[in-house]
Amino acid sequence: MKTKKTVDNEEMIEEFKSLVNLNDADFDVMKKHRDFVEKIVDFLVDDFYTFLPYHPSTAKLFAPWMNEKRKKQLRQLLIDATQGNVPFKALFVVGFKHIQNGVSPRYPLAMISRIQNTFTSLAFQMLQNKDAQILSSAFNKLTAIIGIIFVYSFNSAISEFSGMTPELLEKMAKLGGVKKSSIT
Ligand code: HEM
Fold first, then answer.
1. Which of 35, 54, 83, 95 has the most CB atoms around it within 10 Å of its CB?
2. CA distances from residue 104 to 21, 28, 88, 95, 108 in whole angstroms, order as listed
3. Does residue 104 line the site of ligand 1, with CB under 6 A?
4. For 120-126, which contacts have Cβ atoms below 8 Å and span 24 or more sequence positions?
5. Are the C-beta atoms of 61 and 101 separated by less than 8 Å?
6. Å from CA of 180 to ligand 1 middle
7. 57 lines ligand 1 (CB under 6 A)
8. Which of 62-66, 75-79, 159-163 has the lowest mean pLDDT?
């Protein structure tokens, strides 16, 4: 009898952390700069919610539920995560929420990059260069993991809905010979 492969989230989280080299020192530096994070978090969240509802690709996905509750949620997530309380397991579910709402992970990944860039430029404007560099590096690793979890949720959903095993998905990832003309 076939047994369904279950995913050990704890193990995955440890793997993600070690791949991006997110460690205790990163959380120490983010905690040390809590004031900075609190000063800029509203700017990050406002930028997010001003940009997405008007961008042609995301407007239809975003507008119906854009509200204060979601703003507060994103704000709290950024504060909690930078203070060492990363809701890793909840993030797997948040990843699924996006899929349920027809949001491809490419959009969160693009937004994560946007948030990282804004964070870095504000850090260099407001802090000493060395602090800005160390803090931005920690923040980039942390937010990269959020993106990785969203992609992971997406892969798991494909696997679940299509009946594809994770091994088959791995094989697909290694597919060679994709013609350039087939990538549009
Ligand atoms: C930095 C990247 C992002 C983060 C951290 C994030 C975070 C979240 C969170 C915390 C939720 C609430 C999940 C829940 O109900 O428990 C959510 C829901 C949602 N997000 Fe995102 N999100 C991101 C990017 C995006 C982007 C780029 C889009 C659209 C293009 C998007 C569309 C949605 C939608 C449609 C929902 C469901 C709303 C609902 O149930 O009312 N998200 N997101």
1. 95
2. 26, 33, 20, 10, 8
3. no
4. 122/40, 122/43, 123/36, 126/36, 126/39, 126/40
5. yes
6. 32
7. no
8. 62-66
Amino acid at 51: F
- Which single residue is written with the structure tokens 């995913």? 7
Residue nearest to atom 9 of ligand 1 (CA): 94
Answer yes or no: is the C-beta of 62 below 6 A from any ligand 1 atom.
yes
What predicted TM-score, i.e. pTM, was given to this entire model? Answer: 0.86
> What is the mean predicted confidence (pLDDT) over 71-83?
95
Cα of 164 from ligand 1 centre, angstroms: 26
Average pLDDT score over residue span 80-96: 92
If you average pLDDT over every residue of the chain, what do you get?
Answer: 86
CA-closest candidate to residue 30, choices 122, 103, 111, 136: 136
